[in-house]
Amino acid sequence: xxxxxxxxxxxxxxxxxxxGNTGHRWKKWLGRFERLLVAMNITDKKQQxxxxxxxxxxxxxxxxxxxxxxxEAKDYDKAIEALNAYFIPHVNTAFEEYNFxxxxxxxxxxxxxxxxxxxxxxxxxSFTDVDKEIKNQIIVGCSSQKLRRKALREDPTxxxxxxxGRAEETSQIQAQFVEKQESSQNINAIKTGALEKxxxxxxxxxxxxxxxxxxxxxxxxxxxxxxxxxxxxxxxxPHARD
Length: 242
Known about the structure:
Elements: H1 22-39, H2 45-56, H3 58-66, H4 76-87, H5 93-102, H6 111-121, H7 130-141, H8 145-154, H9 158-198, H10 202-205, H11 209-212, H12 215-222, E1 227-228, E2 236-237
Antiparallel strand pairs: 1-2
């Protein structure tokens, strides 16, 4: 029987030395790897084990060599069990659930992002109904009082709660856009009025000066002058005509 040949795709190895939660990162990497096996239709256990150690990288391969009870070359499940025991430490469920209960929606965080964060936090908890726990935590920890009151009044499903939250966020964004446009238009109108007041139009400039400045100028123009004549030094200027 001829061997089946195929080219291996590019797939990032597992970074053993990266900072952060190693157990969580390993589970994420393993999940992506097993989806790769499905996509490539690799069902033979021996092939799966070989590809696991190949794609996991040299550091994981060297760690694997030090582990006991890893099974035979065709035992994929034993290999996974041994690596899980190495990378995933004992989980303190009570502490993980405490962290879950403390989660609050951040000021700049969307409801979908908060939901995703809660879903990640729930992975190490021992919840029997994860969706129910996430829904309850959204009600307690969401930043929208309107959404919280609606949820307490109607007791929606998690899906309906998320739909309502998305609709509220969208309406807020749209309202802010409209209000910003109206505010900008009002400011422009005020600026335009001020410019027209200080800069008369060409039509106004053609008017006589006394008409251009209004009644106050006319009253001042008609007042009797009391200046001293600069020619003769006396009398009220201008002199009355005979």
